[in-house]
Specification:
The structure is a homodimer. Chain A is an alpha/beta fold. The first copy, chain A, is built from 13 helices and twelve strands. Chain A has helices at 8-15, 19-26, 34-47, 53-60, 75-91, 105-113, 131-137, 162-175, 191-207, 222-235, 247-259, 277-281, 291-306; strands spanning 65-71, 95-101, 121-125, 144-147, 156-160, 181-185, 214-217, 241-244, 269-271, 286-288, 315-318, 321-323. Chain A has a six-stranded parallel beta sheet with strand order 2-1-3-4-5-11, sandwiched between helices. A four-stranded parallel beta sheet of chain A has the order 7-6-8-9, sandwiched between helices. A two-stranded antiparallel ribbon of chain A has the order 10-12. In chain A, α5 links the parallel β1 and β2. The longest helix of chain A is centred in the first third of the chain and has 17 residues, at 75-91. Chain A is elongated. Chains A and B meet through α4, α5, β2 and α12 of A and α4, α5, β2 and α12 of B. β2 of chain A pairs antiparallel with β2 (95-101) of chain B, so a sheet runs across the interface. Chain A binds a DNA duplex through α2 and α4.
Amino acid sequence: MRQGSATIRDVAREAAVSVASVSRVMNGHVSVHPETRARIMAVAQSLGYVPHAGARSLSLSRSHAIGVVLPDLHGEFFSEIVRGMDREVTARGYHLLLSNMHADAVLAAQAVRSMRGRVDGMIVMAPQLDTQALDEALPPDMPAMLVNSSPGVARAALRIDNAAGIAASVAHLVAQGRRALVHVSGPPANIDAEERRRGFLDAMARLAPEVEPVVIAGDFHEESGGAAVAMLRARGIACDGIVAANDMMALGVMAALRAAGVDVPGAVAVTGFDDIPLARYLGLTTIRAPMAEMGARAVARLIDALEGGELRAEEETIATELVIRSTTPGSVIGSGGSV
Amino acid sequence: MRQGSATIRDVAREAAVSVASVSRVMNGHVSVHPETRARIMAVAQSLGYVPHAGARSLSLSRSHAIGVVLPDLHGEFFSEIVRGMDREVTARGYHLLLSNMHADAVLAAQAVRSMRGRVDGMIVMAPQLDTQALDEALPPDMPAMLVNSSPGVARAALRIDNAAGIAASVAHLVAQGRRALVHVSGPPANIDAEERRRGFLDAMARLAPEVEPVVIAGDFHEESGGAAVAMLRARGIACDGIVAANDMMALGVMAALRAAGVDVPGAVAVTGFDDIPLARYLGLTTIRAPMAEMGARAVARLIDALEGGELRAEEETIATELVIRSTTPGSVIGSGGSV
DNA sequence: CTGTTAGCGCCTTCAA
DNA sequence: TTGAAGGCGCTAACAG
């Protein structure tokens, strides 16, 4: 992109051929005399010629890059998702153009627009943006995959099965005879948080219809887990199992419970969601959300579409997995993965 | 990048002006009649016109994108570095083009080349590539910053101060009267690992010249920490402090020690390096490596250079910070940050 | 098998 | 203040 580099014309002149021949050789096209080919390759080599990807994509109307717009999410997620995307994208010969998006819809729209002309498609993850904002931000003719975003937009989408995940946790606890379950939810504006909350209520209605389920509002941060426990105790709410909407809050719950001398999992069982590395270390039973696979899948679907397939505006759901550790007791029979 | 989008010509035609005027308006240039400007903007708006960044960068020879080539590193680092870069890059109106690089030099070269014509500069992090491979991979005229890479190349570089960090750990332990220190090193081909190993030996020579320092080879993975402890015990090597080359190994060390009934930090103190989130949770004393700041700094230096400044081929070092937790006892007086 | 020639979408002198 | 025209580097017909 800077001054010095040799262009296709330099190679052509030096090899005494036309740029077309150079282009043919560089792109492995047919019909080039072996001798000319050899000469051209030698010259290209000696000049250190590397095709200018920008020019190439302008002429081909194809950048082989896909834009990724992510919210400012936690370290674990970020790296996992991007890792999955990167794996797939590299295997397919594409590049990833990154752009973070802070919860602001205006900035989001700007980030999305700024990618026109540099990517062939986009992957947008916007758990906190509403349908309309997303719709306005995405150019209508831009192939895009929505990941864990608000439903309602006629776009191809991917989301983890929050409801089934939470339901698995509830089933697991219910199978142990626990009924007084409490859900510590995430921020209300967040689509994942909302689905988990609903999933909890639905699962309770199905699996323990005789009890009135309790939901305490949290915000996905560790502290709100501790706060939830404090509230529970202050109000004297009976509880033998806490289903947190994510692992960080579950950790807060565990710490508060133990600090208060409550036996975990003896008196109260705890489950989280996400399966962050800490969960494994601290023995937290949780729902594993396969973020890397999700990223890879999003890329795969998008590129498939870009290369001729259809990008059907349907939502695909990614299965989660219940990982039983020491915050819920014993190996329970028949409480496998999903519900 | 697809078919539908309106081009500058569509806007020009619709507004009954030349493309030059549209261009002037879009780029906020002077000398455009207010009336024409208004008309053009109205048309652009109604057509949903968004400038084609690819074409723009071809004609300007400026892509406002910077390429990032990273090794396949652990989640924590990856996200922290990229977060720092993203923050800076967004603030400056640039984009990040990502590319992973698996330890193979050929693939690395290819990854780097594939970015010509799509980025204005690059940030390369290659702790396991040697100088020559790096040199060959980077186009001579491509502005680039090396991050935690092999020294010796005449390029601008940034690296965390591994030696000072380890020295701080050693000083901290020595200040507690510990002398029988053991270092569990990282993989020998890794530049960070090597610098930490050397840093340990140098610090020991300086701070505890009377003892023969012990180094056990690890590989940055948790298991090798446990293996190191096993070896220590099998050989009956005396030891009252273990300085691991990274946190994961330190965790392995802690687990093995405790499993063997050894009191930590009573009998043996343990320190790590990196300060991953787990370190905080498990109370591991460690050296904090500010990866986000490092990423941001790399971007800042690169963009400064791209926008007129000089990109001097000098190495800048990023300071680390000793974080004392419970795997090394008590608050020790006078053992602050660096040595 | 090879060269010529239009663009891809935009920016920018140079004239008017 | 505005328009016409060339060019950024490359690819893809279309002729030879």
